[in-house]
Each structure stands twice: as structure tokens, then as C-alpha cells.
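CORE FACILITY INTAKE
Project code: CF-77B
Contact: R.S. (postdoc)
Sample description: multi-component assembly, two entities in total
Requested service: structural model of the whole complex
Turnaround: standard
Below are the sequence entries exactly as provided by the requester. Do not edit them.
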Amino acid sequence: MSDRLLIRGGRVIDPATGIDARLDVLVEDGSVARMHAAIEPEGARVLDATGCVVAPGFIDLHTHLREPGFEYKEDIRSGTAAAASGGFTTVCAMPNTEPAIDTRSVVEQVLRQAAAAGTVRVLPIGAVTRGRRGEELAELGELAEAGCVAFSDDGAPVADATLLRRALEYANAFGLPVIDHCEDPSLVRGGVMHEGWVATRLGLRGVPAAAEAIAVARDVAIAALTGAHLHIAHVSTAAAVDVIREAKSRSVSVTAEVTPHHLTLTDETVAFGALDGDALIYDTNAKVNPPLRSRDDVEACVRALAEGTIDCIATDHAPHAIIEKLCEFDDAAFGISGLETAFGLSMRLVESGALTLPSLIERMTIAPARALQLDRVVPAIGTLAAGAPADLVVLDPDALWIVDPARFASRGQNTPLAGVTLRGLVRATVAAGHIVHELEAAHA
Amino acid sequence: MTASRIETRPADTQLTPAVPDEALWTRRHLLDLDDFTADELDLVMRTTGVMKEVLAREVPRVPALRGATIVTLFYENSTRTRASFELAGKVLGADVINVSASGSSVAKGESLVDTVKTLRAIGADLLVMRHHRSGAPYLASRHVACSVVNAGDGLHAHPTQALLDLYTITSHLDSVRGRKIVIVGDVLHSRVARSNLWSLSALGAEITLCAPPTLIPAGIGAGEGLLPPARIEHDFDRAVEGADVIMALRMQHERMTGGYVPGAREYARLYQVNARRVARAAPNALVMHPGPMNEGVEISHEVAHGLQSRVEEQVTNGVAVRMAVLWLMMRARPERPAANRGAL
């Protein structure tokens, strides 16, 4: 039988085509067949989107799926389930696994597991260097052939400037960008949170904002030197935003992403939690790299996203086991489990008026696709144009919900948002024409 | 502060409820002084005065905490703080068990939360905890059903040291309001300085932090965020002018090789508390140090053992302050058995 699904009654927002209208969407055989004001089901399965927004599925350029090697934190099955639950239909898997994604066989393993999980699309990111050791280039050509969409040693910067130069030049032959995690290690020196008054109050070692700006400035200079495409991971500081803005004004080939948490939470969350209590709690679930920054930095990142200096939102979903967070702050792992709160948390920018709902959706769909030129791998990804992959999401932007990590599909319950009320719910997610996530009416 | 007044009570005072407004104390844990009111600090000072009197008795033992089990859990070496807490508990009649991280289940990889739960399960009513990680006692306090006293956590806080410093100061100066207090040395790495800032500023002292810029933590002195007020002065000769109290901080060896200062020689030249600088302070200014001292580095031998040094007094007061803290905390426990408790 033909595989048909009708998403009926929703407000369709497709930033790539500029559509914002009440339309029914008919999906056939994994692709968008057509959109019209009223389509009869004619035997198609019906997904009721009345009162909701229908948009392209979200695309995450920065996801840690942890498999292979760290399945106790997350595996591809649980990670892609989390993606579906968060409205993501495509996730780019970071290569800091064990072994790292630095050979064809590991890429194939990731793709095989993703296919077996059968939920959302996984696009692997290959390691820049063998074993992510920052010493010699991995076989980028083979990784590109095997299906990698970018290269990164994320978790650590490519510290050696010449190595980064060679990586950018070499990757350029395959038309693929290098994604760098920008921090100057000699300024980090054991820092565990943003350097500022909160770190002083807590007696924790700080990482100055300059550690990021220095690395971004260096990377931008190397990108300009090579003419190759550099993508800056998880921008967190006003100073880095300034460097990127200046680089873009010179037409340097640089793109950038920012996480929902760096757009909404400050270093005060580490001290007092996201519920804004009075008591110090040393929230290890707010320990993340780069660290949550000052209010000024958060405001600068929001402005940069609104004006386009930062291209898109990426989650940096970094799941960890409970015991890796239930410990002394210094000893806790860095990272936030972010896929399932990404939309609700980012909706704060719509609530504050910094972004419109269509522009937020744009920065979670077509903008990330363009940043890494993913349409070369998946044609028409990030849009709802006829013939595009039937990856879409049904959103209720006004629904309030309380974050309960115990109900995450992700194995990583490490979020500082437990108990926080968010506005903006992912009602259903459709990937390749199949419903991969749907809230029961009771939740919706 | 009325501490000195209470200290003059006759040594043979009967077993009276000596602290009438103990109801002021409602804290289950003592983690830092950042939210202490002036009244609470005053209560601790007056209770300490009573404890000083107990310590002055012919047989300095009272059954106030008989039946209570206090565990000292030290993840970091310490002589004076641990001995001080242990003695404080024993004077009050508590059973005191000392646990060190090295050579214990901790060395076998047990997590902090599991360790404190185990100690509670064994029967600890109160945990005195020293840890090299900032915030560790906060973690413990959230996961264990007994009281937690922070005996120093990382770079963060050392509340009982600040309390004994306060007691030492007020026993000489009566009040700290408007007094000029200079804290000199490695403020960046000092939990003692951080806790002192809270208590002294709550009582209206004028605090100057004196150190090279490399040893001043971010945001302090700039009125940023929720930090206590303090003035920053990099020139010690200027900072010490007219000071009522000079508190020297320990300068650890690794800081001198870690690039914070060029070395011990230059540090001593610029920031050592020595006779020449003490002479610039107010007459009879108090010279204090939390110990252990690096004589010849942050403090000269002459000053450390001179007439104005209060260093030994600080150590002595430490026992009384910790008795006060233990007693107040155990009294505040809702589940405390009524019999044989509380009498001093």
C-alpha cells in the first residue's frame, strides 16, 4: 500500500519558501506531495494539527549520540528517540566517541545503528585528526565518501594552527567544512565555569570569555588565509560574536551556531539553579563547555542570532550518566542533555520579542541546513517544498509544560531545567513520512 | 558584640540555659556565612563566650551533647581545624569519630554522596566536612539526613574560621562597625577571605583586600553581582595605613611557582606583614593569620610572634567557636532526644 499521511488543519510555516498559511500537508512515500488549503484524506492516515504550527523538522548540527563507546550515557537508539521527541528530524553526530568517528568503519557503524533505530536521520561528523588527538589528519577523503558532512574534533579545539590550516584546506577539496570548538587551552587552565562574580562567589575556577574570542579570532584568520569554510561551534561570548561579525563583513567563509542554553541561561544558573532560588546549589547540570556566561554575553548571542551573525541554533546535546553529575562540581562532566528542551527553551526568544516564531523556526531548520550545505547530501532538506523529504514537526507554541528529565527519551537526564516551565511543545514529529513522535492527547 | 562581657562570667557558673535567645538559630547546616544576619552572628559570639567559660573550668567537660555522634570527614589534610572540632565535640560530651579520605572507602572510589550516606547510616548526627572541592558540603547537605558543618571547601568558604576571627577581633575591639580591616595576600585562593568578607561586611566593617591583581578574584571590589563590598588596594603600604586589623593569608608554595607572582622574594618584599608595616597601622592593631604560617613569606617571624599577634588566640578561640556552632546546631535538630541534652 502507498504510504500516505495527511497533516491537517495546521498553520504551515516554512521559512525556506516563505509560506506562512493555514494549509493541509500531504505526505506520500516519504516526501512532501503537496500542500493545499483543504486536502481530503482519501485513505491517508490523518495527523490532526488543528491549532498547531506545522514546520520542517528541526536540524541539529551538534549532537553527541555517544555511540560507539559511551552507551551508558546514550546510544543511537535513545539519542535519536530524544531527537524525535524534541522535534528534530536530522541530527549531526559528533565524533567524540570511542573509537572516534575517524574511519569508514565507524561511520558505517553509526549509519547502520541509525538505520536500525529507524527514527530520525543521522549525519555523521568525522574527526579532523586520528583519534581526535590533534596530531595528524584523519583520512578525511574516506570519511567524506562514507557520508560525513563535516569534520570536527569537538570537545577539544584543533590546537595546532598549522594543523587547522591543513584541515581546512584539505577538507575544502571535498567541499566540507571544519567545525571548531573554540577555546584557548592556555587560558582555560582547569576552569569549570565562566569567570566572573558568580565563580568568585562559588570559589570555582573561571574560564575567561577571552579564551573563546582568542580561538575564534585565530580560526577566522586561518579561514581567511585558506578561503575554506569554517564553522564555529557553540558561540557563547559577546567578544566572539564581534569577531565573527567582523569576519562576515569581510566575506570570510565562516558560519556559526549557538545553543539554546547559551541564549537563555547565565552563569547565575550554576549558583542558584534555573528556578532562581536564593541558596547556592552548585548545579552540576548547568556545568557545560563552553560555560554559561554573563547576562551581557547572553544578550549579545541573542542579538547575533537575530541579526544573522550567528547562523543557527544547535543543541550541543551532551548526555551523561547520573553519577557523572551527582558529584563535586569540579569533578562533574561538562554537558547538557538538550534535544528535548531545545524548542521550549528557544521559544523564550519569541516570548521576549527577540525573534518571531517563523524566524526561530528558520534558525532551527533551513538555516542550519544552509550553514553546513546539507542539501548536497539530502536534497531539499529543511523545507516543505513539494518533493522535499517528509521531515516535519507539529508544534504547539503556546502550550506550557514542566520539564521532567525522568520522562526524557534521552538516557541523559542532565538538564538544569528540571521543574522549569517552558512554553512551546513538540506535539508530533514526522521523519521520512513516518510519525516518530506523538504526544498523547493527555499531554497535549 | 558582647562577647567580652560574657567572658567575664564567673568560671563556676551553674548548668544554666546560658543562651536565652537560642531560638534565633534555625539552621540545620552551616555551610557559609553569606546569609548570616547580624543577630545570628551575635548569637554565635555570645554562645562562644559561654563556651570560653566552660573551657576555663577546672574540668572542662559538660554533657551538653552526650549521646550525639559527630563525624569529622576530611578529604584534605588539616591539623588545627580537625583537632579543634574534635576537642570541641569532646568537651561537650559528644562521641567524635574521625574519618580521613585517604585510606578509606573514598580511596577505593566511593562517591561523596555514598560516603556521607554511609556515615549517616552508621549513626552520625552531625558531619564536619573538609573538602578540596568548592561546594562539596553543599552536595553532601542535600543528600544526607544529618547536619553538615563546612570545615573548609576548596576556594569557597571556611565559616568557622571566619567566626573565630570575628570572635578574636570583637574580644579586643568590642565592635567591628566602621573598623578598618585589611586582608592581605592570596585572596583568589582563599576560602578564609571569602567567609570573612561576608561576616565582617554584615557587621559594618570597612574591608580592604590587598594583593597583586593576579590574586584578586574576578568581580570583587567592583560592586558586581551578589558579592560582599570590599575595597581593593594593590599597594600594601597604603592599605595598611591606620588599619585596626591586619589579616594575613597563607601564600602557598604552588602559587609562587604558578605564575601568579614572580616568586617568594618579591612577594615578601611587597606584601609581607612586617614590623615596618604594622607600625603604619593603628596603634595596637591586631595581627591575625588563619595558619599555618609561612614565616618569612607572608608574615615576618617578629610580627608572627610579636605583641600584636593574635595568632595563638585565634587557635584557642577556634575550639570555643566550634563548641558554640556544634551546640547551636544540635539544639536546633528537631529529632534531638530531650534527655541529657543542652545543659552546659
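Facility notes:
- The longest helix of chain B spans residues 311-331.
- The interface with chain A takes residues 31-32, 34-35, 111-113, 131, 133-136, 138-139, 142, 153-157, 191, 194, 217-220, 222, 224-227 of chain B (CB under 8 Å).
Invoice: internal transfer
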